[in-house]
């Protein structure tokens, strides 16, 4: 390994999930999985798209894999969502800002990818692709230095990570040692008062099963309006709802500002999983939209951008608890005091056991044991994972 080597080649590959698990596109699961069972969305206003998110195309993109190879043969990689359209951008637009360059120039590389695509990008798919490249660069830097990424980010501030579990069975998550459970909201405003009552009843049932101290949260996946979200928050207050997540559209900063003023005192308003870059999160924070931000490391701009977002949040006393993102989140969370715990997505179809979040795409993907993960689980170069050769990858836009 030569730490002064230059980037020789960038490759973008794609994978589709399905029955065997979705990989980084974790919504791309087989039939009967809790993650696609009548979850409230803004598409729920159309009856034909209410039962399944796959019916309106939530898994249409699939996984993006970015590989960055250096002249000395070292390869760094990362996975995120974005599939073929993101692969096109990586190969035909962003690769020019990496090939021939020092891989430690991550600030310049990020800046050039972002501003070169600003006229069509700024958020969403384009920033997913930028994030994939950025994470592959951090993996590469770690491998070149022989260090885990968390050590390149300043080192661990704690000995272990603590996790809450997202899934349909917080009662089982409690038995597995997690500190809390986040339920998907099942019924949206279109299902009226009857749906609202069912939402409250499910929380009440889980509170009964989990006891008084276990954290319970609701993830609303952008499905609600401010009025409904306010009613839901107050109706859930007697059952100790810790936070209400992504209640309304990520474009409606004014709505979040209003919601944060209207929820019961002590209940947290959280959002940001579909927000991107320092500028998007600056808006959320300056407008006082929420108490806790949830950037997805694979969607918000990667680690390079998350460092900037996190610093702004820290100065404002706002917690940063990244959405999902597996190892890309773990290596970051362990280095920051204002990221006191992490999310674990229960990818087992019935949320009844711990399975690697990006299963089956990665080898060596660490998982929590008893709701915790010791920092030693992260002590491998880069992000510490390898691509599973059993998962077929395709390179749709070969350049040479
Ligand atoms: Mg969420």
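^ Assign residues to that structure.
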């Amino acid at each position: 390994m030569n730490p002064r080597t230059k980037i020789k080649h960038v490759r973008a590959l794609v994978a589709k999930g399905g029955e065997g698990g979705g990989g980084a596109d974790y919504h791309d699961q087989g039939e009967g999985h809790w993650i696609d069972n009548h979850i409230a969305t803004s598409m729920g206003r159309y009856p034909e798209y209410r039962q399944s998110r796959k019916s309106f195309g939530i898994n249409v993109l699939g996984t993006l894999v970015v590989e960055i190879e250096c002249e000395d043969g070292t390869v760094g990689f990362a996975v995120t969502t974005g599939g073929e359209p993101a692969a096109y951008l990586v190969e035909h637009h962003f690769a020019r800002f990496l090939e021939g360059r020092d891989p430690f120039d991550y600030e310049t590389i990020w800046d050039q990818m972002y501003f070169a695509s600003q006229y069509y990008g700024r958020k969403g798919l384009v920033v997913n692709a930028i994030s994939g490249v950025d994470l592959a660069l951090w993996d590469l830097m770690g491998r070149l230095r022989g260090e885990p990424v968390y050590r390149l980010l300043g080192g661990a501030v704690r000995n272990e990570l603590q996790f809450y579990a997202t899934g349909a069975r917080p009662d089982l998550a409690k038995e597995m040692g997690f500190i809390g459970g986040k339920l998907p909201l099942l019924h949206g405003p279109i299902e009226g008062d009857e749906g609202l009552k069912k939402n409250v009843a499910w929380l009440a049932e889980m509170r009964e099963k989990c006891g008084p101290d276990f954290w319970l949260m609701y993830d609303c996946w952008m499905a609600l309006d401010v009025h409904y979200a306010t009613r839901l928050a107050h109706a859930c207050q007697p059952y100790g709802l810790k936070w209400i997540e992504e209640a309304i559209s990520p474009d409606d900063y004014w709505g979040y500002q209003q919601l944060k003023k209207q929820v019961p005192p002590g209940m947290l308003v959280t959002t940001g999983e579909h927000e991107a870059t320092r500028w998007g999160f600056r808006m959320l924070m300056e407008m006082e939209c929420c108490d806790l931000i949830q950037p997805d490391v694979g969607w918000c701009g990667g680690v390079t951008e998350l460092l900037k977002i996190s610093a702004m949040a820290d100065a404002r006393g706002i917690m940063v608890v990244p959405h999902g993102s597996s190892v890309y989140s773990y290596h970051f969370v362990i280095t920051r005091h204002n990221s006191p715990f992490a999310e674990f997505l229960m990818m087992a179809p019935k949320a009844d056991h711990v399975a690697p979040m990006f299963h089956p795409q990665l080898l060596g993907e660490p998982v929590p044991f008893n709701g915790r993960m010791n920092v030693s689980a992260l002590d491998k170069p880069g992000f510490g994972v390898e691509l599973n050769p059993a998962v077929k990858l395709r390179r749709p836009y070969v350049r040479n």
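The chain has two domains: 7-146, 152-385.
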